[in-house]
């Protein structure tokens, strides 16, 4: 009988942990910008509670140290070291990050699947609508195959000369593992070609641009009244979408980079630093500076 190793001693998990600890140290020492559509490390030395966090892309989260809680329909879902959260997009979730009592820090790996990659995945593997009606799992336990797929992706990510093609291939490996082995077909649900999702993709291409409804209508070849009607049917509006995009980018750059807050504000389309800080606090119940102070270089 094959012996199942405890997650904290699993070789692939330990290698992933070492990689992400090193990444969190580097990103805290340098102004390293990690693309929103790729991956990053979230770390903190104090308990964090962040409200209404927008997930603009399907996102896989793996807890390395400490505990992460998210709230879905007012129900808490707890994720422990070595476990995963598979979050569809677009989503807005309240999040709590709790440091490990022994090591004194929280650390999690975030992996994003951008729209073009998921659409390419669907064309390649031809998943039909029936797979979307199956029972799905947001909270995933330890999985050897998923560990291996993630480790291969991280190893390839360091080989810049190999380009994006192989990296995207590894990302599709992880998606295939999630769909086939982990009951996470909901990771494809966001690619349903809703009007709101088309606008999300457009705004994400240039979030610092001062977008107006007329700009979006021109690109989509529809009138403003028609677009507003479509968005009402999806229970949203243009202002909500643009706020989700800008605040989604904002919290990612605050957590994943050491860029100055003023630079992040400009990247998110805010010329006023005070207005950016005020909106950030209204959205997440904390300021960018307070969130940064709770973060630490993991040792």
Structure description:
- The protein has helices spanning 11-29, 115-125, 144-157, 163-181, 195-204, 213-220, 224-233, 238-256, 261-267, 273-284, 288-293; strands spanning 39-44, 48-55, 59-65, 67-72, 75-79, 84-87, 91-98, 106-112, 139-140.
- With 299 residues, it is α+β, with helices and mostly antiparallel strands.
- The strands form two sheets. A five-stranded antiparallel beta sheet has the order 1-8-3-6-9. The protein has a four-stranded antiparallel beta sheet with strand order 2-7-4-5.
- Strand 4 (67-72) and strand 5 (75-79) form a beta hairpin.
- Mean pLDDT is 82; it is low at 1-5, 31-37 and 129-134.
Characterize the biggest β-sheet.
5 strands, antiparallel
Tell me the number of helical segments per DSSP (H or I, 4 or more residues long). Answer: 11
Helix content range of the residues, please? 40-55%
Mean pLDDT: 82
Provide the number of structural domains.
2
Given the helix and strand composition, which structural class is it? Answer: alpha+beta
How many strands in all?
A: 9
- Level-1 CATH class name of the largest domain: Mainly Beta
In short:
The chain is an alpha+beta fold and 299 residues long. It is 45% helix and 18% strand. The protein has helices spanning 11-29, 115-125, 144-157, 163-181, 195-204, 213-220, 224-233, 238-256, 261-267, 273-284, 288-293; strands at 39-44, 48-55, 59-65, 67-72, 75-79, 84-87, 91-98, 106-112, 139-140.
């Amino acid at each position: 009988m094959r012996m199942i190793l405890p997650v904290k001693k699993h070789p692939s998990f330990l290698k992933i942990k070492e990689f992400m600890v090193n990444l969190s140290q580097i990103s805290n020492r340098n102004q390293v910008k990690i693309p929103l559509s790729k991956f990053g490390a979230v770390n903190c030395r104090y308990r964090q509670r962040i409200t209404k966090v927008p997930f603009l892309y399907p996102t896989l989260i793996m807890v390395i140290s400490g505990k992460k809680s998210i709230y879905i329909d007012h129900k808490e879902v707890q994720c422990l070291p070595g476990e995963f959260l598979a979050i569809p997009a677009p989503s807005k979730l309240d999040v709590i990050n709790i440091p490990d009592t022994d090591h004194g820090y929280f650390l999690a790996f975030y992996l994003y699947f951008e729209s073009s990659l998921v659409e390419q995945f669907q064309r390649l593997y031809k998943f039909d609508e029936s797979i979307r009606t199956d029972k799905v799992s947001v909270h995933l336990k330890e999985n050897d195959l998923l560990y291996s797929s993630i480790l291969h992706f991280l190893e390839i990510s360091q080989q810049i000369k190999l380009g994006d093609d192989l990296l995207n291939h590894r990302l599709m490996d992880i998606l295939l593992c999630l769909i086939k082995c982990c009951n996470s077909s909901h990771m494809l649900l966001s690619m349903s070609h809703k009007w709101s999702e088309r606008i999300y993709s457009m705004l994400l291409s240039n979030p610092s641009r001062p977008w107006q409804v007329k700009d979006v209508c021109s690109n989509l070849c529809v009138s403003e009244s028609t677009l507003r009607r479509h968005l009402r049917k999806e229970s949203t509006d243009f202002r909500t979408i643009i706020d989700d995009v800008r605040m989604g980018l904002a919290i990612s750059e605050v957590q994943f980079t050491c860029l100055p807050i003023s630079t992040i504000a400009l990247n998110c389309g805010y010329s006023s630093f005070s207005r950016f800080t005020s909106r950030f606090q209204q959205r997440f119940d904390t300021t960018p500076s307070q969130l940064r102070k709770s973060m630490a270089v993991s040792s």
